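Appendix C reproduces, verbatim, an entry submitted by the partner laboratory led by Prof. M.T., so that reviewers can inspect both the input and the predicted structure.
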Amino acid sequence: MKVLIDYSGREIRLTDERATHILEHLEMVGQESKIDETLLVPDIVITSKYDATVHLYHKFYHRTPVSEKFLMVAVKILDDDAFVITAFFIDKIKRGERIWPR
């Protein structure tokens, strides 16, 4: 398990099981450092429109294995825990309420 830090200083767990899941997206192989960077220095963070406890961190990258894309990292935020659910490249920012920047 790895512990990552987000833009607010929050500790976020990335379990070995979730890391393996993320690497099932073949374009994510070799992109693990971008997950750290997206959490620490996101372009925008929103709440999922399906689950307000899930925060979607987005960062735009000009170079990825699949052209210019946003990396989206989904994090479940609980009162006493926070952990990565998944991460993958997307074309545009997901919809939801903006958390950061305000």
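The first strand starts at residue 2 and ends at 5. Additional entries are available on request from the coordinating office.
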